[in-house]
Amino acid sequence: MAQPVLTPEQEARVLIDGMLDAAGWAVQRTGDVDLTASQGIAVREFQTANGPVDYLLYVDRKPLGTIEAKKAGDTLRSVEWQSNKYVEGFEQTAKEKGIAGWRSPLPFHYLSTGSETLFSSRLDPIVRPRRVFHFHRPETLLEWVTDDAVLRQRLRQMPPLAGRDEFREIQVKAVLGLEASFADEHLRTLVPMATGAGKTFTAVAEAYRLLKHAKAERILFLVDRRNLGKQAADAFVNYVTPDDGRKFAELYVVQHLRSNQLDPAAKVVITTIQRLYSILQGKDEFDESLEDASSFETEIGLGLDEQLPVAYQAKLPPEYFDFVFTDECHRSIYGKWGQVLDYFDAFLVGLTATPSAFTYGYFNGNIVAEYTYEQSVIDEVNVDFNVYRIETEITGSGSTIEKGEWAKVRDRLTRAEAFQELEDELSYDAAKLDKAVVAKDQIRTVVRNFRDKLLTEIFPGRKEVPKTVFFCKDDSHAEDVVEAIREEFARGQDFARKITYKSQGSSDQLIQDFRTDPRFRIAVSVDQISTGTDIKPLECLVFMRMVKSRSLFEQMKGRGVRTVDPDTLQAVTPDTRVKDHFVIVDCVGVTDEERAWVDTKPLDRKPTVPLKSLLQNVAQGATSDDILSTLGSRIIRLAKRVDDDDRAELEQLAGKPVKELAAALVAAADRDRQIEEARAAAGLGAGELPSDEQIGAARQQLVAVAVEPFMKADLRHRIEELQARVDQLIDLTSRDAVVFAGFRDKGAAAEVVRTFKQFIDEHHDQYIALKAYYDQPHDQRLSYDDIKALAKAIDTPPLHLTTERLWAAYKAIDAAKVRGSGERVLTDLVSLVRFTLERDDELVPHPDVVRLRFETWLSEQEAGGRKFSGEQMRWLEMVRDHIATSMTIELDDFDLDPFSQEGGLTAAYQLFGNDLNPLLDELNGVLAAA
Residue 692 sits in which domain range? Predict the structure, then answer.
């Protein structure tokens, strides 16, 4: 018997009935209504005063919504008015028949063709239909209709951000921007923040606020690799809440999915998008190894971007999460993964450092907290980079193996090798290199050149290989590169290791070892470290593979941009003091102008031009974009390598903070900023483009502001002096033995002493630390700051005098008059000045002098009948040692170690009572006497 042909309207009803059934609704005809049959009842063709509504929705025997069904192809927004019509009709009918609803008017309404569904809620502050993947469950609508204030109302009542001092400025902007976007009911919000700016921290901070203040039910955090999920889980678990003080995981359950089973108690669920997709496919298990590789790199990069179907899953309904944060969203919104994100009826937040035009379009241009790489460098959140190019003949042009030559043939899978005589000539180009053909000598030539140039040109003056990542084409290529690195550097397996998806052992553990193990210097990878992985001490990226995606290259480049505190850096790379830049070593042309330069240009565009030349060029009127940007980058680097006092001096000479000094230079060279300023000056709208003349005028104004401080010779000279000093410090660090060995020559030592004496004679009226020995009596007590100012002055080029160097010089001249070698404390400069001016017959470390004075003072006190208890003596010895290294002691110093560990100023007063203040004055006078 032939099946009846359904009309389009009937086909839509069949689809809608199936959707309702899947979501837990019982579909009934009007004449067969049984409101006890299920919690949720969908009654067809319910008659109202304005005609029959297609479906009237009941939950727990009370009506709360409607569904208006339309045939496939109908534009739903054009019939929104019908929902209002039936709401009004139902209200009249309900009043006449005494039907009690949950709310009046009915709050929830759907428009659906079965393939497209719109949903609106009259409980929301803004009643605006939104597209949903599926109908909500009855219990969901019941929860919403009985809630005192629905989520979207609570999002408009968020309290001020607590603990703002713990946030970067851009993170505050991102949190507040997200909440403003949520309040306006924007369903998609993009946060394009540069790598290293703290996107994950921002997401965690906002998730906490959404759970606590907006009463969000659940939050999903999506990644596309398992190790990135672990990083995110650690960030959530260890986040210290600013208003509560407890850690996030003490307040809310955080689940990092390792299976396809969701914990109903979890408030935050972290998973890869691959695993989530398998859950939506109804799979109970998922192979963890499939979460190791980035879906974007392994599938989208191969063109496998066809969307696969996503079906409704009752155990994970679309309303399960209120918010979805998708990390590296420039990847997750592509291909089949976009379908996964569209499944959820949730606010979607995209996090990325490398948005594309498609990314902006997907998020409807709704952008908050845009933060560029250039701005992050200016803010010292990230560091700038240089490019070092290595090019070989084979890399550029390929090669030919002649007919009759013997070649080694290797199976790509097993790597088993055998020799074979070629029957025909074989030519290969760069594209086939390391895929179809492995040129061993090409790999060794690149690695050998890298080895030879690394500590002479790429990182001059360094002793050890900086933490370095080699990016290879595939696992087999990585194997060959590891072998070449170990042999060319003559180092073992602790020095260079492979971190790919086929590495032995846990890749997470290998990455952690690379972060923290000083022996592990070079990691060879394909994709495992290319995106998202946080390895802050990393200083060098070597590209031995081409990257055709700009976004992927930016992500790979981002592994090197992160700043690191000096202690962490020196723990794994002891021969450097600060990370002020990183280096891309390009062996394949990935940074060549036609490929990547437009979007990846470093701020330092003239890395071979000395800073002194840049300053001189600017002073003489040179204002090209490259010069301005490069000078800005160099100023930022210098600021990282000097101390706070030097930075403050630069700011005083410049008349503005160093950050603003650099920012103005970079802004003047930024075409977008020039256009922005021109548009503002001309009063043009956001979409209007200024003329070339207007842009030129705006650039001139930006340049004038940027270069004005550098017209001052004093500022330029001081910058040059500081640059010379920090460079010299690096040289001294790398050649300690040579410097001190040089003082065995009495002639060189005598020259050092003569230079110091001459400085004292010529500058004794400029420095309090010297005036004390010329203008007796001196009524101002010598302070640590006075000694520090003198030490800085003599360390300035061309003198380069330090306490250690002076001490060694005197010892070389007359060792009999020099006791000890100096304790490498700044106050030893007092002893050096006194000895140079012949106030003392011997050169004695200042702490030894203070101890001697202290013993003499104690003897005098005992002779006079003054006694101190054992506990008082212990405190007096701490005071003595503090004066020995800091010149004096003040009451504020009791907040410092070791006093603070013993109870600080309060404990001192309890021990000495009213005698404390006069006792400190007495010891300052006796022990710190010039």
Answer: 611-726
